[in-house]
Amino acid sequence: GVWPSGGGGGEVEGKNWMATLVDDYRHLANRGLIVIFLVDFILVFIQVSLEAILTPMTTNMYDWGEVYNSLLYIGLAVLVVAGFAVIAAIPSSSVSHFDAKMIVLGLGFFLAGGIMATVLLEGSVEELDVSLTAFLFLVATIALGVPPLTIGIPALFAKKVDSEYLQGRSQGLLSATTSLACVIAPIFAGVLLCCMRIMSIIFIVLLCLSIAAFLLCWALGDFTERKAVLVADDDVEKVSINY
After folding, report:
1. I need a labelling partner for 232 at 20 to 30 A (CA). Which of 31, 105, 166, 210 fits?
2. Quick one: which of 229, 44, 12 has its CA closest to 146?
3. Sign for the pseudo-dihedral over CA of 78, 81, 87, 89
4. Pairing assessment for the beta strands 226-232 and 3-4 based on DSSP bridges
């Protein structure tokens, strides 16, 4: 198909929109972006899964009702906001590869939480017997991984897509990845309420896969610094862009 680019009589210039679309998606289908899509999916998938099972867990283990569960969510929200505040206080320009390091830090917190969950959670949700201190430490560890990942993923993604023309489409794909995780995660968590340890092991496998893929791409130079050259008034200034 051809989209006309002008009006009036005679021949008009056109553009093969299908070829352009294919070229756009070929540009987006590079190794670094695919890994960022993967990390984003796993982040949302684990986060939504935990939100789905948190209330059944507290109800069965501690006989909590709406008030105590609400207080738990408020406490986790305060912890996440505090994490954002701490990261915001760090001058990112003074830390090389700031966004990539935030992603690794967040995945590390998630992995630590997954390992603790594998040790503490055994059997179905009705059979769980975990001390309140250990449970709060577990959910707090996972919550601490949310701020660095939430900051690092969009920032690194935007830097990897260096074309303004592709920013909208690429952000749409990232949102689609998030939506897909939000749809699948509650179903996954509901099915595995009968075997919490298997759920935790699956989380660990996904996290190890994402960490290995991310570190491999970093080692191969996908998230290394890129140099841009700005020319103004016959002066050349080199600007470092930290991934």
Report:
1. 166
2. 44
3. negative
4. unpaired
